[in-house]
Amino acid sequence: MTSKYQSGFTLLELLLFVVMAGITTALLATFLLRITRFSTANSIANSVDQGAVQMLSNIEFFLQDTQEILSPGLGEESQQLSVRTTNNEFIEIESVAGNLIFTNMTTEDSFQLNPDDTTIDSITFQPIPGGQDLETSIPMTLSFSLTLSYISSNVSTDSFEYDYSKTYTRSITLNQNLHQLKVNDGLELWLRSDKDVEFDSSNNLLSWTDQIQNISFTPPSGTPPVVQSEGPGQLPTIEFNGTNSRIRATDITGLPQEDSARTIFVVSKINQFTSSANNTILSYGTQPSSFEIAVKIEDNTFSGLRYDIDTLESIITASFQPMIFTAWYNSNKLSLFSNNQAIVSETNTTLSTNGNTMTIGSNSNLAGHFEGDISEILLYSRALTGSERSAVYDYLNQRYQIQGSIQH
Q1: Whole-angstrom Cα distance, residue 314 to residue 336?
Q2: Cα separations (Å) of 236 from 135, 155, 242, 245, 281?
Q3: Cα 249 to the center of its chain, rounded Å
Q4: At residue 134, does pLDDT exceed 60?
Q5: For the whole model, what pTM was predicted?
Q6: Cis omega before residue 256 (within 30°)?
Q7: I want to staple 164 with a disulfide (CB 3.0 to 4.6 A). Which of 94, 150, 324, 390 is the partner?
Q8: Among 309, 320, 342, 325, which residue's Cα sits nearest to residue 377?
Q9: Domain spans of the chain, in order of start
Q10: Which residues contact 257 (CB under 8 A, 6 or more apart)?
Q11: The pLDDT of residue 314
Q12: Cis ω before 288 (30° cut-off from 0)
């Protein structure tokens, strides 16, 4: 006969009840834990999303006064963004040790943009040109994408760690009057004094590397040029002493040779009229078959520009202000410009450029030194049209605040 407790349950029934109660309790605990985890996950996701939205808005706010994107170049991608603002402050945004850091290089202010409980897994910046219209100013778009993750070690419940990662993208339209070079087709050499310049503790130039083919210019001998922190447009510039400072690159065979078409722009400032000799700004090839652009000075008067082994002379106003010099060659016709104003042209001119070196600050024989500052050099392997040349001038004029009118 099976015994019963006073409650009327048998021992077997009571055991079954205890087992069922335990199972129910475990299921309920699991359910409650899942609800807690789900609630925590939602809370984390919402927190990360809100933090990302705020961070992206902050980036957009900091970039609203952008005047020029220093890096990356048009269409290129980079994990670091460097810009110059309308009030000439230099700003960098980059990922450092998992955090997105904003740095004002001018004021030396720096702070973290992402929330403390997140980490930046990756970030990409890409400037996208607004179009090819050279006559109007078309806004540029800056696209950036970042992946933000929650730091899982900050939340741990019953050995539960929650990982959350999401990629965010945004594109913003920058200043319509952005200082950006619009003519890139055929650009073979691009030297800027605010980019890829290495110098020692005394500001002596060690190397200057171009943006297109990574051609590196270094001092071959003599006194190195000096990197000045503030030149035309309040940007750095390279100062040549007119006596024995120059820089040279070898293996420049990728640049226009023989009598091929070319357009060269140089932003420079004459510092002193001290010689009656030709003060060579740049030369490439080997004399007598080198191509040279030089300031010709006679009786302390700036009288024209020299090219190749001949001289084209035309009296133009002397100035210690920054100027844009241009040499343009196509089909036996060569023209020289100052601030986009033609100072002289010559037909039936045949160039015979050859050689594998380019020298800046002197001729190819390391003589005829230039005394002044050089801030930017652009060399195209084709003859730019009038509208293209004007577009390059507009870019250079805005960037370096060239005095006087720019002729179109």
Answers
A1: 10
A2: 29, 49, 19, 17, 18
A3: 22
A4: no
A5: 0.70
A6: no
A7: 150
A8: 325
A9: 38-173, 187-400
A10: 285, 353, 354
A11: 44
A12: yes
